[in-house]
Write a structure and sequence with these properties.
Zinc Finger, Delta Prime, domain 3, 16 helices, elongated, Helicase, Ruva Protein, domain 3, Rossmann fold, alpha/beta, about 325 residues, about 60% helix, 5-stranded parallel beta sheet, about 10% strand, single chain
Length: about 325
């Protein structure tokens, strides 16, 4: 089952005897766990809930907890986090339980990754217990934010969505938190625009980051230094400016690869996770930066990062030197 369908089903009160959640998107996994818990034991039931950690648990204790009859309730909820850390010798008893689970317990297992050849995951697939939580691609971030905004009944325009991704990145939990803060900042029923994102979510001005990237790709040292100075004036730490610059250059690299494969500017921007209104501008910048130049840029950024973290010179001086090197001939 797809993760969103599982969450929605659980929110309607439906759950199965076993659910194996595998993947790295913690936000979705946590939501699924919370929804399955509420569906099986409600708001909270200390008599009928048990939580185990795979690294320290034994399958005997897990199975005993699952087979225990609920006390003054209709079901029990047993959660095993990081089941991938459960020792191999403990798998057989757990697999035996999955072959014949009781219907008075909702057993939820979570794992970042499991060997697809293992008996555990093969049985979970066979019994339809498995839910693989795929990591969202950069191009799906805007759809995720739009969906979360609809869920909260928020109005957010495309430019604000792009600004939010630029300011935070692709960490879903951080994006979710950012939307929550924005909803409180603008107030009920009020639209979210770029100004709200810049005022509430991050000090960094998105247009200054884009201006810095454009200037670097165009080898325009004067404009690049001006954009960096603007960010520093906003009290943005030099190390964070380097990080944002590296992220935007990685985006340009993905755009360049897509363009080289014959994609249109719009398709290349989408593949890179960039906002559609930036497609033409990004395509122009990407064409000015071939893979050799991008490799050089990342070496420069890596060296600047080490210099800043090593305290070999003032951070703003290291940033300026990096920008001069990036925008040089």
């Amino acid at each position: 089952m797809e993760i969103q369908a599982l969450i929605e089903s659980a929110e309607r009160g439906s759950y199965g005897p076993v659910c194996l959640l595998v993947g790295g998107e913690r936000l979705f996994i946590d939501r699924a766990v919370a929804a399955l818990r509420h569906a099986s034991v409600g708001e909270g039931d200390p008599w009928n809930e048990e939580i185990f950690q795979g690294k320290t648990a034994s399958s005997a204790r897990i199975v005993d907890a699952a087979r225990t009859l609920p006390m003054m309730g209709r079901a029990r909820f047993v959660l095993v986090r990081s089941v991938h850390e459960l020792p191999e010798k403990e798998h057989e008893r757990l697999i035996a339980y999955l072959s014949n689970p009781v219907d008075t317990c909702c057993l939820v297992l979570t794992a970042e990754k499991l060997d697809g050849r293992s008996k555990l995951i093969k049985l979970a697939k066979q019994r339809d217990y498995l839910c693989e939580v795929q990591t969202l691609k950069p191009g799906a971030m805007r759809s995720f934010i739009a969906g979360e905004a609809r869920r909260r009944k928020l109005r957010i325009d495309d430019a604000a969505v792009a600004a939010l991704v630029d300011a935070i990145g692709t960490d879903l939990s951080a994006l979710d938190d950012g939307l929550e803060r924005l909803s409180l900042y603008v107030g009920a029923g009020q639209p979210i625009d770029v100004a709200a994102v810049e005022a509430c979510v991050a000090r960094v001005r998105v247009e200054s980051i884009w201006a810095l990237v454009d200037a670097v790709s165009a080898r325009d040292r004067r404009t690049a230094l001006k954009a960096a100075a603007s960010l520093l004036d906003d009290r943005e730490p030099p190390l964070r400016i380097l990080s944002l610059l590296a992220r935007q250059l990685r985006m340009l690299g993905r755009v360049r690869q897509a363009l080289d494969s014959g994609a249109s500017p719009d398709a290349a921007a989408s593949a890179a996770g960039a906002p559609p209104f930036k497609a033409r501008e990004l395509a122009g910048a990407a064409r000015r930066l071939d893979m050799k130049k991008l490799s050089h840029a990342f070496r420069v950024l890596c060296e600047a990062d080490l210099i800043q973290k090593g305290g070999k010179c003032p951070p703003d001086v290291a940033l300026e030197a990096a920008i001069l090197a990036l925008a040089g001939d």
